[in-house]
Design goal:
It is a multi-pass membrane protein. The structure is a single chain. With 133 residues, the chain is an all-alpha fold. It has a domain of 88 residues. 77% of the residues lie in helices and 0% in strands. The protein is built from 5 helices and no strands. Helix 1 crosses helix 2 and helix 2 packs across helix 4. The two termini are 35 Å apart.
Length: 133
């Protein structure tokens, strides 16, 4: 999870790692409000899902690539006794940009995705209308 990655790879203290996770989760929930507003007011559900799912995919790919770089190519180490050098500010920035792209894509698309399930029921049909509640 993000706390363990922050502690072990980014070398954050416990409180800082927990804060990183809390801020990321807060961003996901904040982006869901923004996504619902954009979906209802401007783009519609389908286009909102399409755009923000694409951003989610870009964020996941970027996150996968940068974490692979962190884990497979650590700086200045190679033995058990030698501790690795800290990662550069650029690498850490790319990591945080990628996880916040994931937060944006997931959070903003989620409200629109949830309503697609309700659209599967026909409100005119009494059986399906009963199943909707």
């Amino acid at each position: 999870n993000l706390v363990l990655f922050s502690k072990s790879v980014l070398r954050q203290a416990n409180a800082q790692a927990a804060n990183t996770f809390s801020m990321w989760m807060g961003a996901v929930y904040l982006f869901s409000l923004i996504g619902a507003f954009i979906s209802d007011s401007y783009l519609g559900r389908y286009l909102t899902c399409l755009i923000f799912q694409a951003l989610l995919t870009i964020g996941l790919v970027a996150c996968s690539l940068i974490t692979q770089h962190f884990l497979l190519h650590p700086h200045g180490c190679g033995t058990i006794e030698q501790q690795c050098d800290p990662h550069s500010g650029f690498e850490t920035t790319i990591f945080f940009v990628s996880i916040y792209l994931v937060a944006l894509g997931n959070g903003a698309a989620e409200p629109a995705l949830a309503t697609f399930g309700a659209d599967q029921f026909d409100e005119e049909d009494p059986e399906e209308s009963k199943s909707k509640t």
